[in-house]
């Protein structure tokens, strides 16, 4: 396996190519601009296609067209750009087409700031678009994971014939780290793979049509039932999480992405002070690792600290669902591109402990 020193955004792009992606369409927006820049250079070298669309909306529609013809396709953007792609992502899901969408998060809402943040958790995990569909959402906390999870996202998208999302905050996208690249997969060689005939057809007849417009209520309901069963399969088979120093933890930090990096450092400092802290890091944000939270020893764990680079924090409701309110859940966050530090996390947990003692 090849070793390199890559920036997170570049790592995502290279991982996509190694996974067999041969079509990319996007539109510039900070802090993800290195992804289309890298793809513009690399796609011609591997016989792929790079297109800068006239808008985010056009770009995701181009991805739909490429996916409909059996090509592995990707688009990337940040915050407002992902919102503009929402209809196209819903249409990809409705047509049961695999594609990968990368969101390199910035501050929000609205146009927000161009600095990095973790402001799109709710958007990615609860409502990527209209119609009640779901996407697999993977969140890296290192540049190596940016490679590994992008590579995996393509495999999951094809496996389930559904869009998958890599949700990466701008700090991961901008930092450089040594990485090991995976083996290159053979790209799809024929122009059309037959995805149109292999997708779930509620009518039970063989068709050669890729569409998300079924028109008949009964057919649409049968398709939605199929989707619901698929989402249950994800919850059973595709949950990913890291448990860090949870064996004896009395205080559990829940964090993902860059916030988890800061939390890991804070836990080391807290342990030196005699505070038994640990971390649960969701890697798949959807499906969320509810079972890992349910397994926490409720007689030992005194509280959970939801740590995110957004305000108000957005993951808290999912954490509370996981512990069914049996463990108090507090929060610690910064937003708008302000960096959350390990000192912020440590101070927040020490204040909670101090309040407990009063």
Notes on the structure:
Helix content is 42%, strand content 19%. The chain is of the alpha/beta class and 358 residues long. The chain has a seven-stranded mixed sheet, with helices on both faces. A five-stranded mixed sheet has the order 9-11-10-13-14, with helices on both faces. The chain contains 14 helices and 14 strands. The protein folds into two domains: 235 residues, Rossmann fold (3-Layer(aba) Sandwich), CATH 3.40.50; 116 residues, Rossmann fold. The chain starts with a strand and ends with a helix. The mean pLDDT is 94. Helix 1 packs parallel to helix 7, helix 3 runs parallel beside helix 5 and helix 11 packs across helix 14.
Offer a concise description of the structure.
It is built from 14 helices and 14 strands.
Question: Roughly what percent helix?
Answer: 40-55%
Mean pLDDT: 94
Could you please say which CATH topology of the largest domain applies here? Rossmann fold
Order of helices and strands: EHEHEHEHHEHEHEHEHHEEHEEHEHEH
- SS-based structural class? alpha/beta
The total domain count is 2
CATH class of the largest domain: Alpha Beta
The geometry reads as globular
Q: Tell me the number of helical segments per DSSP (H or I, 4 or more residues long).
A: 14
Assess the beta-strand content as a share of residues.
Answer: 15-25%
Task: Give the end-to-end Cα distance, rounded to a whole number of Å.
Answer: 55 Å
Radius of gyration: 21 Å
- Which sheet architecture does the biggest sheet show? 7 strands, mixed
Strand order of the largest sheet: 3-2-4-5-7-6-12
Strand tally is 14
Uncertain segments: none
CATH superfamily of the largest domain: Thiamin diphosphate (ThDP)-binding fold, Pyr/PP domains
Query: Which architecture name of the largest domain does CATH use?
Result: 3-Layer(aba) Sandwich
């Amino acid at each position: 396996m090849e070793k390199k020193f890559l920036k997170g955004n570049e790592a995502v792009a290279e991982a996509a190519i190694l996974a067999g992606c041969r079509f990319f369409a996007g539109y510039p927006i900070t802090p993800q601009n290195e992804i289309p820049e890298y793809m513009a250079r690399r796609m011609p070298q591997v016989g792929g296609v790079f297109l800068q669309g006239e808008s985010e909306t056009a770009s995701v529609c181009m991805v739909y067209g490429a996916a409909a013809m059996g090509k592995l396709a990707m688009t990337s953007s940040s915050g407002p750009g992902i919102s503009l792609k929402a209809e196209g992502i819903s249409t990809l899901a409705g047509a049961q087409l695999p594609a990968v969408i990368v969101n390199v998060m910035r501050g929000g809402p609205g146009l927000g700031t161009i600095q990095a943040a973790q402001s799109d958790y709710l958007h990615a995990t609860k409502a990527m678009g209209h119609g009640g569909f779901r996407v697999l959402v993977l969140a890296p906390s290192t540049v190596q994971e940016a490679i590994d999870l992008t590579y995996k996202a393509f495999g999951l998208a094809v496996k389930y014939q559904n869009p998958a999302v890599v949700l990466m905050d701008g700090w991961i996208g901008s930092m450089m780290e040594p990485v090991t690249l995976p083996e290159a997969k053979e790209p799809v060689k024929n122009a059309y793979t037959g995805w149109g005939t292999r997708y779930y057809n509620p009518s039970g007849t063989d068709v050669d049509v890729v569409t998300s417009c079924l028109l008949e209520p009964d057919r649409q309901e049968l398709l939605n039932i199929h989707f619901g069963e698929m989402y249950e399969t994800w919850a059973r088979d595709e949950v990913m999480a890291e448990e860090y120093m949870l064996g004896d933890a009395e205080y559990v930090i829940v964090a993902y992405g860059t916030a988890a990096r800061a939390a890991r450092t804070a836990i080391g400092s807290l342990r030196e002070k005699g505070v038994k802290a640990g971390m649960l890091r969701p890697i798949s944000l959807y499906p969320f690792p509810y079972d890992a939270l349910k397994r926490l020893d409720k007689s030992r764990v005194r509280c959970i600290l939801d740590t995110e680079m957004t305000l108000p924090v957005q993951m808290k409701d999912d954490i509370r669902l996981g512990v069914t309110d049996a463990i108090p859940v507090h929060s610690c966050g910064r937003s708008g591109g302000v960096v959350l530090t390990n000192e912020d996390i440590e101070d927040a947990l020490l204040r909670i402990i101090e309040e407990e003692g009063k």
